[in-house]
């Protein structure tokens, strides 16, 4: 398949090098301002998939990519997924697939210069980039006119007239572009879908909505714990909080983690480093060994690498303790009570900044979960 408006090939791209970082920011900003798309790293311009060495895969940490984008597109405005594909490529090589979502309200404006000292400038502060065919270029007048028309149409679509409503009707103000289901009904419907097909999971927005409304939910209902944990493994901002709230047994956690490795969905980049940390808090040495054996044969390079980084339950446990020693916004978590940890998590969710959520919520959640386990 040839490159096009929604497909870009990069034979090599290193997100730790300044030149490649600016190239990445430029391409992602242009796609987000256009129709979204995919960037495949390890594929030549003619579509030949050579892959990149597996030793370079760990550099494509979604959180670090998010931090890079935040620094040029403040506040965080881009939704991006990072997947690693190993099947079908030469041994020891993988292709990194970046999925860029179209921004709901373009344009994104770059907030600082993209320069390399002593070299050319990739873009300037205030630049608006779009994807024209296979190139990332400054926006034209026609692009701004298209965005203006989209805004106008979106506003007009939100105008509705209620001519008459029954006396028993209840009116409710909602935010966002769509009306969300009540949390109890949403969770019940999601459980029904999950029962029919285990790959039918909640997305990140649904998990945050349910977390905000957790007080009205029955988290002990059939399949609810498994659905929440399996979903949050793919969108881990609330993951450790859900585990603490549903309080699964160690045997159930062991089965959920093994099932996650076997499930056929491709959205697994977030779970790789989370699985050893959860396992260290719940499993026995034997169960942990069984888990890392499954990780070693996973077709996903991220998961294989996580098993290599944490080969024993002791090494994973040490990482849990390192995470508990971190500070959040200059505050030591040891100085906060459990209720205060939850309050801080609620505040992060209400702020709606996906970059802060992805970086801070897992750390808060690990501390909260470790305390809950310790008090049982």
- Described by the principal axes of the CA atoms, the overall outline is globular
Give start-end ranges of low-pLDDT stretches.
none
The overall pLDDT average reads 87
Distance from first to last alpha carbon: 55 Å
Strand content: 5-15%
Query: Number of helix segments?
Result: 14
Summarize the main sheet: 5 strands, mixed
Write down how many β-strands occur, each being a DSSP E stretch of 2 or more residues.
11
Find the structural class using helix and strand composition. alpha+beta
Order of helices and strands: EHEEHEEEEEEHHHHHHHHHHEEHH
The count of domains is: 2
Computed over alpha carbons, the radius of gyration is 22 Å
The share of residues in helices is 40-55%
What does this structure look like?
The protein has 376 residues and is of the alpha+beta class. The model has no long low-confidence stretch (mean pLDDT 87). The chain has helices spanning 18-33, 62-72, 141-157, 183-196, 204-212, 224-234, 239-246, 250-262, 271-282, 285-296, 301-309, 313-324, 338-351, 354-375, and strands at residues 7-10, 37-41, 52-53, 80-85, 93-100, 114-115, 121-123, 129-132, 135-138, 327-328, 331-332. It is globular and about 60 Å long. A hairpin with a 7-residue loop joins strand 4 and strand 5. The chain folds into 2 domains: 7-146, Methyltransferase, Cobalt-precorrin-4 Transmethylase, Domain 2 (2-Layer Sandwich); 183-375, no CATH class. Helix 7 (239-246) packs parallel to helix 14, helix 8 packs parallel to helix 10 and helix 10 (285-296) runs antiparallel to helix 11. Strands 1, 2, 3, 4 and 5 form a 5-stranded mixed sheet that branches. The protein starts with 6 loop residues before the first strand and ends with a helix. It is built from 14 helices and 11 strands.
């Amino acid at each position: 398949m040839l490159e096009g408006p929604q497909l870009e090939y990069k034979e090599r791209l290193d997100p730790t090098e300044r030149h490649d970082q600016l190239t990445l920011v430029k391409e992602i900003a242009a796609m987000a301002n256009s129709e979204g798309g995919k960037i495949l790293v390890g594929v030549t311009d003619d579509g030949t998939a050579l892959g990149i060495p597996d030793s370079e895969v760990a550099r494509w940490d979604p959180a670090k990519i998010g931090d890079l984008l935040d620094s040029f597109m403040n506040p965080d405005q881009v939704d991006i997924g990072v997947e690693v594909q190993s099947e079908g490529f030469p041994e020891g090589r993988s292709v990194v697939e970046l999925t860029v979502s179209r921004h709901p309200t373009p344009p994104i404006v770059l907030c600082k210069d993209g320069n390399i000292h002593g070299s050319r400038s990739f873009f300037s502060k205030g630049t608006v980039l779009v994807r024209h065919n296979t190139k990332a270029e400054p926006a034209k007048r026609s692009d701004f006119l298209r965005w203006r028309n989209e805004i106008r149409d979106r506003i007009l679509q939100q105008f509705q007239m209620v001519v008459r409503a029954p006396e028993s009707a209840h009116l409710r103000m909602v935010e966002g572009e769509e009306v969300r289901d009540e949390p109890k009904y949403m969770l019940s419907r999601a459980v029904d879908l999950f029962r029919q097909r285990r790959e039918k999971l909640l997305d990140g927005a649904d998990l945050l909505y349910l977390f905000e409304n957790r007080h009205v939910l029955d988290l002990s209902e059939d399949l609810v714990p498994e659905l929440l944990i399996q979903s949050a493994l793919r969108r881990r901002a609330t993951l450790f909080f859900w585990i603490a709230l549903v309080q699964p047994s160690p045997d159930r956690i062991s089965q959920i983690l093994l099932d996650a490795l076997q499930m056929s969905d491709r959205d697994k980049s977030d779970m790789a480093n989370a699985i050893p940390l959860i396992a260290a808090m719940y499993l026995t040495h034997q169960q942990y060994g069984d888990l890392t054996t499954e990780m070693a044969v996973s077709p996903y390079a991220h998961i294989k690498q996580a098993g290599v980084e944490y080969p024993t339950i002791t090494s994973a446990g040490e990482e849990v303790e390192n995470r508990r020693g971190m500070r959040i916004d200059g505050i030591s978590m040891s100085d906060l009570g459990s209720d205060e940890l939850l309050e801080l998590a609620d505040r992060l969710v209400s702020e709606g900044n996906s970059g802060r959520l992805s970086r801070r919520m897992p750390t808060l959640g690990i501390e909260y979960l470790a305390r809950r386990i310790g008090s049982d």
